[in-house]
Design a protein that fits this description.
heterotrimer, A alpha+beta (830), B mainly beta (365), C alpha/beta (230), A: 830 residues, alpha+beta, ten-stranded mixed β-sheet, six-stranded mixed β-barrel, 28 helices, 60% helix, 15% strand, B: 365 residues, mainly beta, AttH-like fold, 13-stranded antiparallel β-sheet, ten-stranded antiparallel β-sheet, 2 helices, disordered N terminus
Chain lengths: 830, 365, 230
């Protein structure tokens, strides 16, 4: 058996190392991408365990409240007759504002009860566990000595702080005493979290229930880690979609394995026949070819594991940026590669290889002992079955349509995924007929357009139809993915642009300087907003305040805006409901409006109500929003202030009086804001920034597409190489018949070009269909955004041309091999 | 802002529990430079109760000390200690919730003599949003969920620890005893090197202990010390030994000796005898002797001899449990021994509490 | 005008096969006049195929020179050799070597298309007519018989009207009757079109149509016999 394997599989593999390597590498790339996305996703999602938790270890419960816990709750908890251990926390961020390489990086700023905790944490100043006024403690990671100064921007205020002490902690964290922290982040009288360790005399759940009863309204007691869980849950759809996207490269790889093994089988039919005649069983033959696939799987898995680890580094950066702008502040954790990921890599590599080799290996096992057939028979079979395959394709397409109509399951668009997969299957089935049909029709046309070489190329591809179809299928799948994601992103982008046109009607926007994040709402002084409001250039301001909250186990954003001011122009566009009456009622009733993603996530619509810690609110309308995926609950500012009386805004929109020069107005606003570190944007530059963030968000998908395309192009190169080797006699003959070497080269390049063209056509069509699923099913069900369909013409044209060029480049090496063949040798008659 | 460089001597080897608070960053020495200064314990102080059972924030340091020997109805003996410290950091009081003008330290210890297990805990807080403090209005002294609540002249002690939950009602049959002369207890030569020192010398304790899932009824006697001062000790002390005894004949005795670095005993070391009717008599060092008499444990002398010849007192002091050391878990507070003791001799038997400081490895910040 | 279409001047051909030097031709000289039908005979490995390849400018001598219609092949680059081949040489092989995925007509017009010739289809039809296969244009190679395939191959070799036709065992894969028909066809080509044929063969029957027999042995000419072709 082993010898059979060596003879039938290993030796031929050795004689064509380039092709074998290409195949293995294609598998490796597929595995690597899947692994990288998995590792990077875990690293990006795993990092919600905030620095605070690493600072104190795991508590059992945590107490939180929207807008902060009244600090008296801490005193109340401390005096309850239970043996709790408590840690009070204020959690915010500080931006390094001094000179230095890390300038601009955002660090956690943790307020702790230094007096109560310092002994345990090992945080001390020079003298003892009592905080100095205005001095902060820093983690070792910042590389500062006690007594040094550190420049930080906190909320909108830049300042210089003395380093009172240094504590042992990896990473970069700033710690301040609670009293100081409350002043710095402008949350007097509030705490963000109280961590509670409970004694084991009762279960944690029982404690949670008991404590919840002791708490005043609006204060929530939850199991610790609930927030991390919530974040993970929120990210789940995003990670799922990425994961699915990463599998595309693997699917492309599967096509290539199928092709490689098919070529092996077709080439060695007579050899198999002989072996069968000599007593090899069907099982042995099957095993030998599956073994060949497994070899690719093992090598691909091993290389993919290493490659995946490397790619994960890059992916984490991209993912981190996306998570940050769409979901939640996160600091990527270390990428952890372990036995599980290694197992995953090999499992994926081997199973995808063996699965895709199954059909050709079975064909090999079916070769009767008497057979010594020439190449062409199975190609003939492919032609014969075209009708049946087309029927199958139609069936799959119908199933795809059915699947796409299904509602999400467990919040995930499984119907959409199935539809996409079925569509790819339908494409694979339809491609042989398409290739054959196009070739038949176009052969004379090609002769006229591309000369005899083009015609010969077309004929040759037609002749090895099965092989050609698989290649076209592989490349088409990759292209389809590119096209569909391209259309989806393009549509999304256009939708967002139009939305911004409607939404961003103010002339000037203000917010604390620093990197924006979906769950970080730094505030600035309310007095600043008031100062700006009375500037002679200013017509009106909208003070917007947002709070990160948890709603039904998922993170969300609660915010308030000045309804009347927004009404000055534009503002929210509603999915349903009459805009005018909504905006009229909003300031006066116990009401909110919610964003589309929020509505989708929680299955809410106009007329339902949301229950917040301080009351129930009727939903007046659902508005379109593309700012982030957390989802918004918005009420009128006065209503919000009633419950959360902190007047500091997190954003300010400024409308300028008609006739006032915009630059002059911006200057006036900036002057008014002097001394506080806020970013002032003119309307236009805010849009530019928003689109920049949008583009950054999709960087990872572009990277995934690129890998799938690379895999496919590598497949093309390998397959053309096989084609050259299988047709060397023919190529030699052409030389006898008066062909120049450049004509032979042109022939091979024509084949590459034709493959590329066919794949582009098929991929475009398939991609178009997939894009509909992406835009209207997967995206809608995963994220809840309504996207208008738009053609990103320039992007698509560019991308398709690029892929086309790449396939031709893939033909260069096989073409070189073809021109180097010695015609006398290859035509030599035995 | 206040300069927070500790004075040299506080950094050095003084290791009395009762000096612990002086190690906190604002020292008396530092504070004295700034106006206004802390008030000192000076002769002529007029006590007024119940006001003087509570806080005196104009003094830098203040403590309330509860110790006692209690037993279950079956006779299972326990010792306990609950101490509240208040340490002034800034003599100018601040209105800010999180200000650290005062910090509050507390110690809790339980001696399970039968099982020879010693539990002890430490807790440091600022008053913050109700974390710790002394509230004369509500007659409450607390640090987290350790507290003394006065009610109808009784003191209700409650303390929660991971291993146990102690609740005792303390009733005094005798009036408070004011130690020393002219309202002050002089500790070292010099003006202000003194404290205002008040005790409840015989508190009848009854209550409940929850330990290891068991609820135990307790009864016994307790002692309470309340001392108020600003930097009352001199630089020459290396530690002290303090003993409170409740004798079976209904009298009480308190003696302490201040040990100097040169090995001698501070001549101002003092004692107080309380007769059955609650009358107190001050004892100078000439009038009593209080000396180690044998066994030691980790340098702590565990056996003592107390003699007050003028009162016919000659007692042998010993402890039923060696390890009653409150071991510091951090580098700021020192370790010390404080535990239940038994006495026998003239005029009979008794129980008490012994405190020994300065035997531990010298503190070094 | 030169009376020699192809001239071998002391041509040697050495190459390595499995590391061993092989002397395929040893200082062989031969002149073939236009319009001659020359048979090359000898055992396998005597150098027949090498000689044909060199005559067709597919191979170059290691020593000496080959003049094809006066052109020294060693003097030409790859493009020049291809041009020479396109203009002057047609090849016929033992196993026909038709492109299986091209129709009969497409196979025939291939040399014209490769050289960018005009009226390819028309001339292919003409050539097919010549080999009496009119009406077979759209057939695929696997749809016709062996003899027909060889005739298609001959038509392909003739379609660009070469002066020289090189045939390597053209009837080796055919039965006797069919082989005879092919030989007669070849003879007709020489007689009627004046094309020169150099044919490697080892069947004695096939020499009856030839004007000259060149017997090769170990890379040398053993004998040259002129005969009256029938």
């Amino acid at each position: 058996m082993l010898r059979l394997f060596a003879r039938l599989i290993l030796r031929p593999m050795k004689s064509e190392p380039v092709r074998a390597l290409l195949t293995a590498f294609a598998v490796a790339l597929g595995v690597a991408v899947v692994l990288a996305i998995d590792l990077a996703g875990e690293a990006a999602a795993g990092s919600f365990r905030s620095s605070v938790e690493t600072l104190t270890g795991d508590a059992d419960l945590e107490v939180t409240a929207v807008g902060g816990i009244p600090e008296a709750v801490y005193g109340q908890l401390a005096t309850l007759p239970f043996a709790f251990r408590l840690k009070a926390r204020l959690e915010d961020y500080a931006t390094l504002s001094g000179a230095g390489p890390d300038k601009g990086s955002v660090l956690p700023l943790i307020g702790i009860d230094v007096v109560a905790d310092a002994l345990e944490l090992g945080i001390t100043n020079e003298a003892g566990p009592v905080p100095d006024k205005d001095s902060v403690w820093v983690s070792e990671g910042l590389g500062l000595k006690p007594g040094a100064n550190i420049e930080l921007q906190i909320q909108d205020r830049p300042g210089t702080y003395r380093v009172g002490g240094v504590f042992k902690q990896k990473g970069q964290i700033i710690v301040a005493d609670i009293g100081l922290a409350q002043r710095l982040v402008r949350r007097p009288g509030r705490l963000d979290r109280i961590l509670v360790w409970v004694p084991p005399v009762r279960s944690v759940d029982e404690w949670q229930q008991q404590l919840q009863q002791e708490m005043p309204a609006g204060v929530t007691v939850a199991l610790q880690g609930a927030r991390t869980q919530e974040n993970r849950r929120m990210l789940e759809a995003f990670r799922w979609n990425l994961r699915v996207l990463s599998y595309i490269a693997l699917v492309v790889g599967a096509f290539l394995i199928y092709n490689t093994i098919s070529v092996s089988v077709v080439r060695r039919r007579s050899e198999i026949g002989i072996l069968r005649a000599l007593g090899a069983t069907r099982g042995a033959i099957l095993a030998a070819f599956l073994g060949e696939a497994a070899v690719f799987g093992v090598v691909g898995g091993a290389v993919g594991l290493l490659l995946g680890r490397v790619m994960a580094e890059g992916a984490v950066q991209l993912l981190g940026a996306t998570v940050e702008s769409l979901y939640v502040s996160s600091r990527p954790a270390a990428i952890e590669i372990n036995a599980v990921s290694a197992l995953l890599a090999f499992t994926i590599g081997i199973s995808i290889s063996v699965l895709s080799a199954w059909s050709p290996a079975r064909e090999a096992a079916g070769v009767p002992p008497t057979e010594a057939m020439a190449r062409g028979r199975s190609d003939y079979l492919a032609r014969v079955h075209q009708g049946r395959d087309l029927l199958l394709a139609a069936g799959l397409a119908a199933l795809a349509f059915f699947a796409s109509q299904q509602p999400p399951f467990a919040g995930k668009p499984f119907g959409g995924y199935a539809a996409a997969l079925l569509l790819i299957g339908a494409g694979a089935m339809a491609i042989p007929a398409m290739v054959d049909g196009i070739n038949r029709v176009s052969s004379r046309l090609l002769l006229r357009l591309g000369g005899i070489e083009a015609m010969l190329a077309s004929r040759s591809l037609s002749a090895s139809l099965r092989r050609t179809s698989v290649l076209v299928g592989a490349l088409a799948t990759a292209i389809a993915m590119m096209v569909s994601v391209g259309i989806m992103v393009g549509s999304f982008r256009q939708t967002v642009l139009i939305w911004m046109d409607n939404q961003l009607k103010a002339d000037i926007y203000l917010r604390p300087a620093g990197t924006a994040s979906a769950d970080r709402f730094p505030t600035f002084d309310a007095a600043l907003a008031d100062r700006i409001a009375v500037l002679p250039e200013v017509r009106a301001v909208d003070r917007f305040r947002a709070y990160p909250i948890s709603y039904n186990g998922l993170p969300a954003t609660l915010a308030g805006g000045e309804t009347q001011v927004i009404e000055l122009g534009g503002g929210a566009q509603f999915v349903s409901g009459d805009r005018a009456s909504i905006m009229q009622r909003l300031p006066t009733c116990q009401c909110v409006i919610i964003s589309e993603p929020f509505a989708n996530k929680h299955r809410l619509s106009t007329g339902d109500s949301v229950t917040l810690p301080f009351g129930r609110f009727e939903i007046l309308g659902v508005y379109y929003d593309y700012a982030n995926e957390r989802g918004y609950i918005i009420m009128d500012r006065r209503m919000l202030l009633k419950y959360l009386p902190d007047p500091a805004p997190s954003n300010l929109a400024v409308w300028v009086k008609p006739g006032v020069d915009l630059d002059q107005a911006k200057l006036a606003v900036e002057r008014a804001a002097q001394g506080s570190s806020v970013a002032v944007f003119a309307n236009r530059s805010l849009r530019v920034e928003a689109i920049k963030i949008f583009d950054r968000t999709f960087a990872i998908t572009y990277a995934l597409e690129a890998v799938a395309i690379i895999v496919a192009v590598m497949g093309i190169a390998g397959a053309l190489l096989a084609l050259v080797i299988d047709r060397k006699r023919e190529l030699g003959l052409l030389r006898f018949l008066g062909a120049t070497t450049s004509q032979v080269r042109k022939l091979i390049l024509c084949e590459a070009g034709l493959l590329g063209l066919l794949a582009n056509v098929a991929g475009f069509l398939l991609g178009l269909a997939l894009s509909l699923i992406l835009v209207f099913v997967i995206n809608k069900q995963s994220f809840g955004w309504t996207i208008q369909f738009h053609w990103p013409v320039a992007v698509l044209t560019g991308a398709l041309s690029l892929v086309y060029a790449a396939t031709i480049v893939a033909g260069l090496y096989p073409a070189r091999i073809a021109t180097r063949l010695n015609p006398i040798e290859v035509v030599h008659e035995e | 802002m206040i300069e927070r460089i500790p004075s040299r001597q506080t950094r050095s080897r003084q290791v009395s529990r009762r000096q612990l608070l002086a190690l906190l960053p604002v020292t008396a020495a530092g504070a004295e430079v700034k106006a206004p200064a802390w008030r000192k314990a000076l002769p002529g102080y007029r006590y007024q109760f119940p006001r003087d059972h509570f806080s005196h924030p104009e003094f830098q340091t203040e403590w309330w000390y509860y110790t006692g020997n209690v037993t279950t109805p079956q006779g299972r003996p326990f010792g306990f200690e609950l101490t509240f410290f208040r340490q002034g950091i800034d003599p100018v009081p601040s209105q800010a919730v999180w200000s650290v003008d005062q910090v509050y330290l507390a110690h809790l210890a339980l001696s399970d003599i039968e099982r020879q297990r010693f539990y002890h805990y430490e807790r440091l807080n600022r008053s913050g949003p109700g974390l710790a403090g002394i509230d004369p209005e509500r007659q409450r002294i607390w640090n987290g969920n350790w507290q003394i609540q006065w009610h109808n002249g009784d003191q209700h002690l409650a303390a929660v620890a991971p291993e146990f939950n102690l609740k005792l009602a303390l009733h005094s049959d005798k009036p408070p005893v004011i130690h020393g002369k002219d309202g002050i207890s002089q500790k070292s030569p010099g003006e202000g090197r003194a404290s205002h020192y008040v005790s409840f010398t015989r508190l009848l304790a009854s209550g409940e202990l929850e330990l290891a899932g068991q609820k135990l009824k307790l009864a016994g006697t307790a002692w309470m010390d309340h001392e108020i001062f600003t930097n009352h000790l001199g630089d020459q002390l290396s530690g002290w030994d303090w003993l409170s005894l409740q004798l079976a004949n209904g009298t009480e005795l308190m003696v302490y000796r201040l040990r100097r670095k040169d090995g001698s005993i501070e001549p101002l070391s003092h004692g107080t005898f309380i007769d059955t009717s609650g009358r107190a008599r001050g004892l100078t060092l000439e009038e009593f002797s209080f000396t180690p008499s044998g066994r030691t444990w980790n340098r702590y002398p565990l056996e003592w001899r107390v003699k007050v010849p003028s009162l016919g007192i000659d007692l042998e002091v010993s402890t039923p449990m060696e390890n009653q050391q409150l071991v510091s878990t951090n580098r700021f507070s020192p370790s010390y021994w404080e535990g239940a003791v038994r006495v026998k001799g003239q005029p009979g038997t008794g129980v008490g509490y012994l405190e020994m400081t300065g035997y531990d490895t010298p503190l070094n910040i | 005008m030169d009376t020699t279409l192809i001239r071998f001047e002391r041509v040697s051909k050495d190459y390595l096969a499995d590391g061993e030097p092989v002397h395929a031709l040893r200082e062989l000289s031969l002149d073939v006049a236009p319009g001659q039908f020359v048979a090359l005979m000898g055992r396998s490995g005597c150098g027949k195929s090498t000689l044909l390849n060199m005559a067709g400018a597919m191979d170059l001598p290691s020593g000496g020179r080959v003049l094809l219609d006066g052109q020294d092949t060693s003097q030409l680059d790859d493009a020049g050799l291809t041009r020479l081949r396109r203009e002057k040489v047609g090849f016929v092989f033992q196993s026909f070597q038709l492109l299986s995925n091209l129709s009969v007509a497409e196979n025939v017009e291939l040399p014209l298309l490769l050289s960018g010739g005009v009226n390819a289809r028309e001339r292919a039809r003409e050539a097919l007519g010549w080999v009496e296969l009119s009406g077979y244009e759209t057939r695929l190679p696997h749809q016709i018989s062996g003899g027909q395939m060889q005739r298609v191959a001959i038509a392909r070799a003739l379609v660009h009207a070469p002066k020289l036709l090189l045939a390597d065992e053209p009837i080796g894969n055919l039965d006797t009757n069919t082989g005879d028909l092919i030989l007669k066809l070849l003879r007709r080509i020489v007689t009627e079109r004046g094309t020169t044929i150099l044919m490697a063969t080892h069947s004695p029957e096939s020499v009856v149509v030839c004007d000259q027999i060149v017997r090769l042995r170990d890379g040398r000419i053993e004998a040259v016999e002129a005969r009256q072709a029938r």
